[in-house]
Amino acid sequence: MPHALKVNGRLREVDASPDTPLLWVLRDHLDLTGTKYGCGLGICGACTIEIDGHAARACQVSLGDARGASITTIEGLSAQGDHPVQAAWLAEDVAQCGFCQPGMIMEAVCLLAARPGASDRDIDETLRDHVCRCGTYPRIRRAIHKAGQAK
Fold first, then answer.
1. CATH number for the 3-76 domain, one of 3.40.50.1100, 3.30.2310.20, 3.40.50.720, 3.10.20.30?
2. What is the CATH number of domain 84-150?
3. Quick one: pLDDT at residue 137?
């Protein structure tokens, strides 16, 4: 039985079991591969998306639990990749390998929506469970401050 999901502002129908992790629905059924599979345990943050204005780990949310929610993935932030957080990421040259970046960007978007003037402590606390093996955390912090000032 198909399930209706609102993803990136569009109503989409998905034919999958309600217990399918949203990560796999996004990647395999809707071809939204910007949401990355990292650990599958909700630990690394690579699969972070926005659900009803809050950051969530897509590997830990089932299709059934997402019913009725508004979901935004990295692809849905802006058509041209010019969302203030994305623009700041580029301006600060944050990404190296880039694998963790979609999840971090989505987490930063949710943080700045709640606290546009987020402090270093707010940023560190919010991103503490995101794993960036390249270690670009100082640039990430600068980019979040820059995006917060741009709003």
1. 3.10.20.30
2. 1.10.150.120
3. 85
